[in-house]
Model the fold of this input.
Amino acid sequence: MWMTALLRVLACGTVALAPLEGYLLEVNGQLAKVVPAAFVGVWVVSLVRHRRLPAPHPVHLLVALLAVVLLATSAVHVAEPFTLEYLVRWVPFLVITVVLADVAAREVPVKALLAATVAGAVVAASGGLVSLISGGLRATGPLEDPNDLSFFLVAALPLLVALPAKGRSRIVSLLLGAVLVAGAAATFSRGGGIALACALAWLVARRGLPVRAVVVTAAVTGLAALVFAQAAQAELSRAFQEKSHIAGTNADTRMLRWQAAARMLSDDPLLGVGPGGFRQEYAAASRNAEIDEQTPVAHNLFIEVAAELGLPGFAVLIALVALGFVAAERAVRTNRREAVALQAALIAVLVASLFLSEQYYLPLWSLVALAVAIERRALKESRCASST
Done:
C-alpha cells in the first residue's frame, strides 16, 4: 500500500514539476532530475516486489525501435561533439513513457495525473505573468524561452475538460483556464496561439467542450487582459513593438533552418546526422546563413528529428504519436472526457511543434503514455463487464 501511495506521489510530481524545471535548476543543477529518477526507481522496485512485467503493448515496440535508431545513429556519429549529450537527453523520455503508461494503467488514477499536469502549468503560467509584470518583454517565468512556456500551457489547457466541472469545481476550472490562457497570451507566441485554437476547435467538434465555456473563459480572460493592459500600458506597448520587430526575422531564420535540415536529411536519409547533429552541422548546411547563430535548433520538432535520426527515426516518432491518438480514440466509449481531452492536448502539442523543437520536454511523451493508459483501463473495464 505504501509503495502504491509513493508511486502516485512521484508520478504526479513528475508531471507537475516538468514546466517548473527552470525554477528547480536555479536551486540546483540536478534538482529537476530527482523526482523522475525516484519515480523510475520505485517503479522498478515495485515490479521486482510483485514479480511482474508491464503488460505488453505496441508502445513498448515503438519505444524500443526508437531506442535502436538512436543507438545506431549515435554509434555512427559518436565522434561528434553533441551526440552523447543529446543521446542522454533522449533516454529519460523513452523510459518515462513506458513507466508512466504502466503506472497510469494500474496504480495511479489518470485524473490525478491530469490534475497534476494542469496544476504545474497553472503555477508556470502565474510565474510567467509575474515575470511580465516585473518588466519582461514577454512572459517567461520558469522557462528561459517564452515559446517553451507557451508550449506547456497550451498542452495543459485542454486537460481541464477531463477534470470535475460541477458546482464550485466549474468556477475553479474556468479560473484555471483563464490563468492558462492569460499566461499563454503573455508569451506572445504565435505558434502557441495557433495550437490552442486547433485544440479548442477539436474539443468543440467532439462535444468535449461547450461553446459557452469557451465564450465565458474568453470573456474572463479578456476582462483580465483589459485590466492588465490599463495597468501596464507602457510595458505592453513596448512588448508589442519588440515582438513585431522580431516576427519577420523569426520567420526568415526558421525557413533557413528548415532548408538546412532538409539538406542534412537528403545527405543521409537512413541515419541522419545523429542526436544533436543539427546544431553541429547547421553552419555548413546553411552555408553560414546566420553569422551570429552557429548552433541553433531547427524550431520544428519533426524536421529536426528527421534530420538527426533519419527517416526511420522520424517514422517511429510519428507512429508513436499516432498510437497515442488511436489509443485515446479506443477509450472514448468508457472514458470520453479523458480521451477527447488527451486528443486535444496532443493536437496542441503537434501544432506547436511545427514551430518549436520540443522533443526534449515532457508533454509529448506524457500525453502518449496517458492515452495508452486509458486504453488499457478501458479494455480492462470491458473485459470485466463481459465476464459478468
The mean pLDDT is 87. The first helix runs from residue 2 to 17. The CA atoms of residues 160 and 173 lie 7 Å apart. The radius of gyration is 21 Å.
